[in-house]
């Protein structure tokens, strides 16, 4: 095993230096001295010796597991050793070796010529990337036993990774270069799973996760003097409860057939309260009313259909809470408090108020006042009340302020001067990604397509299994099953890393500047990201969510602390005891959120969802009883319901009710009716081209620093222009007389016409 090799290459040199002592028995000074010795040995020219030293460093990063008795001890020593390695400058040394391996043309050309690439072709890269991943992840994650110096080291490491200290660019750009090099088939031996995981964790560390994004959003609104957010979206989503999935047509037909045969369904799909999914009961309902409701639902079971057998075991629920005390025995501070009304506060945009007033003025007074939202003369009293309600819920986003500011800068570039742009990590990353952003996006989507469970193997597709296939193919059934589990797990991890990476980039770019977000979004749309995500969900999503492609006995650090049990074909087939694969659920939610980001407020992209017939695909995804996933599915269904026709809305009333209960409302949005907007024409090319022009103007204004631009100063003084010394080519001196004869003397000059023109 790899861990045994790392242990072996650490122990032999360590025994020579410290014969009868363990690493955990050394003091910090002795440990630092030995790490410095390893770093010196890492600079030798012999490739094999470098690899042995790198494996010894990897053993330290893995927590010297041979000297530990529990998993907690392994994690403790892993954290201690990684902060020690970071303090000694190990990451910089590893980065130099990684750059050497990336630029190793001999290894790349050898891999290109090989018919089949295996694990042996990327050993050095995998060891280096493993150490760097452990360092980034362990330093990134905060623990209770963090020392003050570790907190300082964490902030320093975060600043180093986000700043252009590595060859004038952030560390993430080097990893993006590896991704594009792999997808262009110039380096097919690169271990993409490890590269993508390290890239995702680097972005997560340097830019921050969703909670940091929420804090940045709050501070950004305060800086722009905008009202605070109406609610914390993270807390609202966490408090949501999953709903019952709507019954499909097949289930309804099967239910009717069972009723005709005289069979009674064992478990009909009943209506659920927000608490029913989690086995909780509403304390404000008495038991008698509850029993009557359940009896009534049994009668209606034939109408609503039977739950699919898979669905009976697929309620994704948190650990059961302790039983609540009766309300009479609870003190006031401990009584259950249930939120009243809908989970989200409604929002209204400024343009929605303008559109409402424009329609009202046309109807009642026969003319409009443009964007004036204050003058209500001539409008009836109910319109006044409506406008007052709309203004109470008016929401101004940071993006709207940024767009307005950009329009002002474009109109008055000389008056307003240059914009001061703060060098934040996300701004530095965008500037570095800007020249090759389309290549990065296409490469990530290629990998996502290759790792999707619905994609079929093609001869011209990229090989993402280079760092999972062994040199010798399995010869027994057990080996084949183990390899099959490894391959599926490998693909799932790639999907997880890419989906999380894209979502983080979209959210951070949107917060930094809306046109940065629109730029990467447009590249994703043009690279067919929307149909790719829909293709991903066009599968048995319940099977994907409940897949068991993991072997618990081989998970680290369990496999190095405890004795390895005997693996059999039966144990591999049964899998672990977990009911769900949280990795796949995480990927599905990320992909749904990406799809929401791409289509929100974009009419042409919403019509793409309709054209690609996404409604039945998304409706099948509602079978996963997880509140957050259902929320983003319902959002995607909401934006296209007005285009699906009255018959679809009539036959999917349960879905419509779920949308009403869980998705935020826009007060004057007729999503459930679709009156005159059904006939609204859509021109994908025109909308995207107009957006592209705005993006290009933004990029040119902010990032095009080439001299001689549109607003470069011009010298219009005749004397200074004629007095400038002009460098002429050497051949001009030899042909000067010929040039005078041809261009001046032989050309007749009409002096009268010239004077009249003056």
UniProtKB/TrEMBL annotation:
Q: What is this protein called?
A: Striatin interacting protein 2
Question: Looking at the UniProt record for this protein, which Gene Ontology cellular component terms does it annotate, in alphabetical order?
Answer: cytosol
Query: How far does the signal peptide extend, from start to end residue?
Result: none
The record lists the lineage as: Eukaryota, Metazoa, Chordata, Craniata, Vertebrata
Positions with biased composition (Basic and acidic residues) = 278-288
Bias class Basic residues marks the residues at 260-269
Q: Which gene encodes it?
A: STRIP2
Location of the region described as Disordered in the Swiss-Prot/TrEMBL record: 246-322
Pfam families assigned: DUF3402, N1221
Segments of skewed composition (Low complexity): 246-259
* UniProt family annotation: Belongs to the STRIP family.
- Which species does this protein come from? Scleropages formosus
- Acidic residues: compositionally biased ranges: 289-308
Gene Ontology biological-process annotations: cytoskeleton organization
Domain (Far11/STRP C-terminal) spans: 380-736
């Amino acid at each position: 095993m790899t861990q045994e090799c790392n242990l072996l290459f650490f122990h032999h040199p360590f025994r020579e230096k410290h014969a009868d002592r363990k690493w955990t028995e050394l003091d910090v000074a002795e440990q630092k001295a030995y790490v410095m010795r390893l770093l010196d040995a890492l600079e030798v020219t012999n490739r094999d010796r470098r690899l042995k030293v790198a494996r010894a460093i990897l053993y330290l990063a893995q927590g010297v597991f041979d000297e530990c008795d529990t998993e907690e001890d392994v994690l403790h020593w892993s954290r201690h050793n990684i902060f020690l390695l970071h303090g000694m400058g190990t990451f910089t040394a590893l980065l130099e070796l990684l750059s050497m391996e990336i630029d190793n043309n001999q290894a790349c050309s050898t891999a290109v010529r090989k018919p089949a690439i295996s694990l042996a072709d990327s050993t050095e890269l995998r060891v280096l990337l493993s150490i760097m991943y452990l360092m980034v992840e362990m330093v990134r994650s905060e623990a209770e036993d963090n020392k003050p110096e570790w907190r300082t080291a964490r902030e320093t490491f975060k600043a180093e990774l986000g700043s252009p200290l590595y060859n004038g660019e952030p560390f993430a750009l080097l990893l993006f270069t590896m991704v594009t090099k792999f997808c262009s088939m110039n380096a097919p031996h690169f271990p993409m799973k490890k590269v993508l995981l390290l890239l995702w964790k680097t972005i997560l560390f340097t830019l921050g996760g969703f909670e940091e994004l929420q804090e940045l959003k709050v501070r950004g609104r305060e800086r722009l003097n905008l009202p605070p957010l109406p609610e914390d979206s993270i807390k609202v989503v966490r408090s949501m409860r999953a709903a019952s999935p709507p019954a499909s047509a097949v289930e309804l037909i099967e239910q009717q057939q069972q009723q005709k045969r005289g069979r009674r369904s064992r478990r009909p799909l009943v209506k659920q309260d927000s608490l029913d999914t989690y086995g909780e009961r509403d304390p404000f309902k008495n038991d008698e009313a509850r029993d009557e409701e359940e009896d009534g639902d049994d009668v209606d079971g034939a109408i609503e259909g039977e739950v699919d057998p898979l669905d009976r075991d697929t309620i994704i629920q948190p650990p059961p809470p302790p039983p609540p005390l009766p309300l009479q025995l609870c003190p006031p501070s401990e009584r259950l408090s249930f939120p009243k009304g809908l989970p989200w506060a409604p929002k209204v945009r400024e343009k929605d108020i303008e559109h409402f007033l424009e329609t009202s003025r046309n109807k009642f007074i026969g003319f409009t006042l443009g964007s004036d939202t204050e003058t209500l003369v001539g409008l009836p009293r109910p319109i006044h009340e409506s406008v007052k309600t709309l203004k109470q819920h008016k929401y101004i986003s940071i993006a709207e302020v940024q767009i307005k500011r950009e329009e002002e800068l474009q109109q008055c570039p000389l008056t307003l001067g240059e914009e001061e742009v703060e060098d934040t990590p996300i701004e530095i990353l965008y500037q570095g990604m800007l020249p090759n952003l389309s290549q990065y996006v296409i490469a990530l989507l290629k990998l996502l397509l290759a790792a999707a469970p619905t994609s079929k193997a093609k001869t011209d597709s990229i090989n993402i299994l280079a760092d999972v296939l062994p040199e010798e193919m399995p010869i027994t059934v057990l080996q084949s099953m183990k390899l099959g589990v490894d391959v599926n797990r490998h693909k799932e991890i790639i999907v997880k890393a890419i989906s999380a990476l894209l979502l983080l980039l979209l959210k951070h770019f949107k917060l930094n500047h809306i046109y940065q977000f629109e730029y990467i979004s447009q590249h994703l749309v043009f690279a067919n990201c929307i149909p790719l995500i829909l293709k991903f969900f066009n599968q048995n999503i319940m099977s994907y969510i409940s897949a068991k492609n993991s072997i618990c006995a081989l998970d680290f650090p369990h496999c190095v602390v405890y004795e390895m049990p005997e693996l059999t074909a039966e144990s591999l087939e049964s899998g672990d005891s977990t009911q769900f694969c949280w990795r796949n659920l995480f990927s599905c939610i990320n992909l749904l959120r990406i799809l929401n980001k791409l289509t929100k407020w974009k009419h042409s992209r919403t019509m793409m969802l309709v054209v690609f017939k996404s409604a039945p695909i998304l409706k099948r995804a509602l079978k996963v009883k997880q509140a957050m996933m259902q929320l983003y599915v319902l959002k995607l269904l909401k934006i296209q319901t007005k285009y699906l026709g009255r018959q679809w809305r009539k036959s999917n009333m349960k879905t419509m009710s779920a949308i009403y209960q869980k998705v935020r409302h826009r007060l004057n949005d007729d999503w459930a009716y679709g009156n005159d907007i059904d006939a609204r024409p859509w021109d994908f090319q025109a909308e995207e081209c107009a957006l592209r022009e705005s993006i290009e103007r933004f990029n040119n204004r902010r990032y095009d620093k080439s001299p001689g631009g549109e607003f470069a100063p011009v010298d219009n003084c005749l004397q200074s222009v004629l007095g400038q010394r002009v460098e002429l080519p050497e051949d001009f001196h030899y042909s000067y007389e010929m040039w005078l004869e041809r261009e001046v003397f032989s050309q007749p000059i009409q002096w009268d016409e010239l004077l009249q023109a003056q």
